[in-house]
Design goal:
Shape: globular
Helix content: 25-40%
Strand order of the largest sheet: 9-10-11-12-8-7-13
Number of domains: 2
Radius of gyration: 22 Å
Number of helices: 10
Low-confidence stretches: none
Order of helices and strands: HEEEHHEEHEHHEEEHEHEHEHE
Number of strands: 13
Strand content: 15-25%
CATH class of the largest domain: Alpha Beta
Mean pLDDT: 89
Length: about 325
């Protein structure tokens, strides 16, 4: 990202608890996982093998891409639907089967005698038992652990239900329209047309956080901000920033080093045939980087103005409010 890479690597090394993949599998400290709550739970197949089904494009019967469940996928879906039989304190609000993972939304409507993790263990056992009956035994189906996200309020529930159900469409587009992950000029953020490059679907993510740090922060305060923002990223937030102040550069650099998805706003635009290079190329190919430029490309050095800073910060806030659209 810049010449502070060595410092960032040292910082990341001193905070190993924050160097995790975005699909966090550790629980939220202090949360009562027996109590009333709504969770979106994600479980991935060991080795991300696509054993649960196949992705199909729109056809005469389906207006949108959809996943055709395999025999294993149908067994997994039945095991999920049976959860309330063993845990009457819960209601299942949503479920999405994907080729190599599943999402489910669980409403714990009254306190459970056991931790949420025991419910997930029971579900996994139900899947193993189903595989045994199918004559498939001794094969690891699920990755160890699971990811949970605590949903608060109807707004979050609605956003994540939509995100969950839209998964097949997003996967189909990523597979069939690779051009969407290069330069695009058909996006408007707020009222500003922008050019983007990278994974546009980071804009769709329900939880985005604008990173903003005062220029007056001390080194210790910057370290504290890094820890705070990376904690948010470790629980699923996409960090958004133009990286203007030293603190913002450090936070986003640490997030990049740790492998979290980020959205960067740029003062300089893209040349006509420009592609991400170096580590940014890898990050784009992994789907964890989006670059956003509101102004045309220029080759000469220009000191960023206060007005430009304000514009970039405003765009970051608009992205986090989902105030953007793709235009025809």
């Amino acid at each position: 990202m810049d010449n502070s890479n060595e410092r960032r690597k040292q910082w990341i090394a001193s905070h190993p608890e924050l160097v995790v993949k975005p699909s966090m599998k550790r629980r939220k400290i202090g949360h009562d996982y027996n109590g009333v709550a709504i969770y979106m739970v994600t479980l991935c197949i060991e080795g991300r093998r696509p054993v649960l089904g196949t992705l199909n494009g729109p056809d005469d019967r389906h207006a949108l891409p959809w996943v055709c469940a395999s025999e294993v996928g149908r067994a997994v879906k039945r095991a999920w639907q049976e959860i309330p039989q063993y845990h009457p304190q819960v209601r299942l609000l949503g479920f999405q089967l994907m080729p190599d993972h599943v999402h489910g939304i669980i409403y714990v409507k009254e306190p459970m005698p056991q931790h949420l993790g025991r419910l997930i263990q029971g579900f996994k056992k139900g899947c193993r038992d189903a595989l045994k009956q199918m004559g498939v035994d001794g094969v690891a189906l699920w990755e160890e652990g699971y990811n949970d996200r605590i949903l608060k309020g109807q707004g979050q529930l609605k956003r994540w239900m939509n995100y969950l159900m839209d998964n097949p469409r997003r996967l189909w587009i990523r597979r069939n329209h690779a051009d969407l992950f290069h330069q695009q000029n058909n996006v408007v953020i707020g009222s500003s047309p922008v050019t983007i490059m990278g994974n546009r679907f980071l804009l769709d993510f329900p939880d985005k956080v604008a990173v903003k740090c005062s220029r007056r922060l001390t080194s210790q305060e910057i370290d504290d901000e890094c820890k705070r923002y990376l904690s948010l990223a470790s629980h699923g937030a996409v960090l958004v920033s133009p990286c203007i102040s030293t603190g913002e550069k450090e936070v986003m650099g640490c997030a990049f080093e740790a492998g979290y998805p980020i959205i960067l706003l740029l003062e300089n635009g893209f040349s006509p045939y420009q592609k991400p290079s170096g580590r940014q190329f890898d990050a784009c190919s992994e789907g964890r980087l989006l670059l956003v430029a509101p102004w045309p490309h220029h080759d000469d050095y220009r000191k960023i103005t206060r007005e430009q800073c304000n514009t970039l910060n405003s765009l970051a806030q608009s992205i986090c409010r989902n105030d953007w659209q793709v235009v025809k």
